[in-house]
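Full entry
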Amino acid sequence: MSITIERAVEATAEVHGLIAELNDVLGAAYETHQRHGLSVTQLFQPNLRFFLARLGGVASGCGGVAIFDDYAEVKRMYTRAAARRQGIANALLSRIEDEARAAGKSVLRLETGIRQQEALALYERAGFHRRGPFGPYDMMPLDNIETSLFFEKRLT
C-alpha cells in the first residue's frame, strides 16, 4: 500500500483520533507531569505544521514540526500499532525535516520518553544524537523530565 503525507490544516476527527490514541499510549507509560505533548488546539498555532500519514488512504500516523527562532522541533509523532513497520514514521520524519529546512532551520530537536523504544530506534537511525534539555524543557523541574530524552540533528 502507498503512503501519503498531507498537511492537516484543521483539527479533524482523524487528527483528534490519532492524538487521543497517542495520549492513551503515553498515559499508560508516564505520569501526567512527565508528558509534554501539545493539545490538538496547540497543534494549529502559526509556528506549527502538522501532518497526517495515510496508508492506503487510511489515516495511520501523524507528526508535526514547531518552528522557533534558532531551531525546529518534532512534535506529536505517532503511528498506529497496526500500521507500524511499513515506513510511515520514516515518511513523516522526512516531511518534517523538509519543512524545517524550508523554514530556514539547520537544527531539528525533539523530546521523547525513555520507554518509547521504537521511537528511540527511529531517531537514532535517522541521524539524531542525544543532547541535554533545550527550550522550555531546560527550565522544568527534574521530576518532570527524568523520563525524557532529548535529541538533535543537523540538517543539511
